[in-house]
Every structure is written in C-alpha cells, then in structure tokens.
C-alpha cells in the first residue's frame, strides 16, 4: 500500500520505459580503470530485513539497504555521488577536485578520501571561519591530503558565481568543481543506481523508498528509477527544508530532462536544524543501536528512521506497506566506535 496514489507519470508504462533504458545505458558505461579498482567498494550493498516490533505491530515491513557498508572511506551515498564525478574529472583531464561544505561535511571528508585513493589533489572550501584545532571531520580530510580554505558565510552563498570561482582558480589553479554534497547530474546518476541493485536481492517489491535529504541528489536519483506505484520520501535534515522540493525537481530535470512526481520531501523531522542532536534524537539512536547493533548516522539517517517510525505510528504509512530505508552512511564520528555495531 502506498502513501499516496501513484503519480500519473509513475503509473504510465511509457514513462517507465523512457527512463529505464537510459539508466541501463548508464550502468553499462565504461568506467575508468581506476574507478573500478578492486577492493575499494563492495557492491551491491546488502539488503537486510529490520526485525522491529515497533513497525511490525502496524503491519509495516522495513528493509534496510546497507549502503553504509559499501566502503569504510567512501561509504553510502558518497560513493554513489562521487563515482561518475571521478569519471568526469578524469575525462576532463583535471588533476585537482575542489568542493564545498560545512565544517562537519561527510561529503568533504569523502572527497578527500577519494582524492587519496584515485590520485587527485583535493581542495575543500569550508563555510565560515577557520577554527583551530581542526575538528575530527576536517582533521580526517587533511589526513587524506586535502587542502582547506574558508569563505565567510556571505561569500560562501555566492560560491558558484564567476568572481568567487575566478578567485579560487587564481589561488589553486584549474580544478574540477564539485558542488556541495556532490549533488550534480553525475551524482544523481550514481544515486539512481541504488535501486537498480534491488531487483536481484529483494523478492517482494517495496512500496516506499526513504532517504535523508540535504542537497537532494540521492532523492532525485532514486525517484527517477522507481517502478509504477512506488514512491520516494526524502527526510529533510534541515529546518525549513521546503526549498528542497525545487532543488530535487531541478536536479532531475538537469539529469534526465524531466522531473518525476513520485516523491516528496518530509520537512518535520529536522530535530531543530542541520546537525542538531537533541536528547530525544540521541535516545532514539542509542535505543536503535541496542536493538539492532546499528549506529545510525545522526545528521541524516537517524532523522529518516525516526520519521519513518513516526509516519508508521500515525498510519500515514499504511499497514501492508514495505519500506526500503536507505542507510546512506555510517556514523563516522569517533564516538560511534563505542556502539555495539555488527560487522
Ligand atoms: C549520510 C548522508 N545521508 C544522506 C545525505 C543526503 O543526501 P543528499 O545530499 O543527496 O540529499 C547525506 C549528504 O550528502 C549524507 O552524508
């Protein structure tokens, strides 16, 4: 059972066929040998059934797509979004990748790791002032060889304008620009592949796919690869996440030439704002770790999982539904090591 009736586009077999061959073609695209270096990533990521009476008592089945297990250094949607960007950077002949993010950005850290693995120089342009000593996340980026620079918040908002980029080029030379969160068409194409792995692994089809939502690429890609009747929900990690509706729409148009209307953004589970972790969210994380041995990544994944439980309790996700929850990353904070995480 779905949350809302299927969109006209999602139930139109013609629309389905116009999407899937394109994605099939993407999957068979030749990747550069370095991007396919064995042992870097483990794909397809496993799908596990969540045995949790809080969902079961409402007749809702939950499957976890464990993208957090793809790689220790390029986990979750990081690999999905970096994959085709690394291919594009290689094809463009650029040896430097420059990207943007906040001081605790998972994406900045992963880009640094990808640079170290695949031989790119990496520059991280960080929002706000420098704070020393560096936090654990930026320290990890620097340990992977990333150079950091900082833009005050008003300049950061203009980061894609020509004068700001020209200034960065003057300082760092030519580079392959990667947007915040890795959400550009190449990133969206990589995220579309998450669901392409599903048919081989899951016997019964799912009704709803869910992910955390920050820069929108993960939701945009997955929604473009749904079957008729399936829907996607992105749980905004940010307060005031309504704007993400336009962001995701724009990413789909830029990537596939059209937007689908089989998805929406849930804006009520931000827990006070981006990266906020109030005690009720922390209790939920601790309880989940105790029940399932999984340390939920707190910025996106825990909020999604909490939101799914709440929508199930409210009956918005109806009995009989199967939900595929994408575990888009592990909790990489050093403190997470104290959780009883399963291998
Ligand atoms: C662990 C994790 N989950 C989900 C997201 C949200 O993905 P997106 O930025 O594509 O909306 C991010 C950010 O990239 C993330 O780091």
UniProtKB/TrEMBL annotation:
It is an enzyme of class 3 (hydrolase). Residues 1-29 are annotated as: Disordered. The keyword Mitochondrion does not apply. GO terms for molecular function: 1-aminocyclopropane-1-carboxylate deaminase activity; D-cysteine desulfhydrase activity. Residues 14-27 have a biased composition (Basic and acidic residues). InterPro entries: ACCD_DCysDesulf (IPR027278), TrpB-like_PALP (IPR001926), TrpB-like_PALP_sf (IPR036052). Its cofactor is pyridoxal 5'-phosphate. Residues 53-329 form the Tryptophan synthase beta chain-like PALP domain. The keyword Transferase does not apply. One of its GO terms (biological process) is alpha-amino acid metabolic process. The modification N6-(pyridoxal phosphate)lysine is found at residue 78. Its EC number is 3.5.99.7. The active site is at residue 105. Keywords: Hydrolase, Pyridoxal phosphate. It comes from the Bacteria. Belongs to the ACC deaminase/D-cysteine desulfhydrase family. PANTHER family: 1-AMINOCYCLOPROPANE-1-CARBOXYLATE DEAMINASE-RELATED. This is 1-aminocyclopropane-1-carboxylate deaminase. It comes from Candidatus Protofrankia datiscae.
């Amino acid at each position: 059972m779905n949350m809302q009736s299927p969109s006209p586009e999602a139930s139109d077999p013609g629309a389905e066929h116009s999407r899937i061959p394109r994605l099939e073609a993407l999957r068979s695209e030749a990747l550069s040998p370095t991007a396919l270096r064995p042992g870097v990533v483990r794909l397809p990521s496993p799908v596990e059934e969540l045995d949790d009476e809080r969902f079961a008592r409402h007749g809702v089945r939950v499957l976890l797509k464990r993208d957090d297990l793809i790689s220790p250094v390029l986990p979750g949607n990081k690999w999905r979004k970096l994959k085709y960007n690394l291919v594009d950077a290689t094809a463009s002949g650029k040896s430097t990748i420059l990207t943007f993010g906040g001081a605790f950005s998972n994406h900045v850290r992963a880009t640094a790791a990808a640079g170290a693995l695949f031989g790119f120089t990496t520059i991280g342009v960080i929002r706000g002032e420098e704070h020393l000593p560096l936090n654990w996340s930026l320290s990890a980026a620097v340990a992977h060889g990333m150079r950091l620079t900082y833009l005050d918040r008003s300049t950061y908002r203009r980061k894609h304008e020509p004068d700001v980029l020209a200034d960065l080029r003057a300082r760092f030379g030519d580079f392959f620009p990667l947007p915040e969160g890795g959400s550009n068409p190449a990133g969206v194409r990589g995220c579309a592949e998450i669901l392409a792995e599903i048919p081989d692994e899951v016997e019964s089809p799912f009704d709803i796919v869910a992910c955390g939502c920050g820069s929108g690429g993960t939701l945009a890609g997955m929604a473009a690869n749904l079957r008729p009747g399936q829907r996607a929900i992105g749980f905004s990690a940010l307060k005031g996440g309504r704007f993400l509706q336009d962001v995701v729409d724009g990413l789909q148009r830029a990537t596939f030439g059209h937007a689908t209307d089989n998805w929406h953004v849930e804006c009520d589970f931000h827990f006070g704002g981006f990266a906020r972790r109030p005690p009720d969210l922390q209790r939920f994380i601790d309880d989940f770790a105790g029940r399932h041995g999984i340390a939920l990544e707190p910025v996106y994944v825990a909020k999604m999982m909490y939101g799914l439980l709440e929508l199930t309790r409210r009956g918005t996700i109806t009995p009989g539904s199967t939900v595929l929850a994408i575990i888009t990353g592990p909790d990489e904070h050093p403190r997470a090591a104290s959780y009883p995480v399963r291998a």
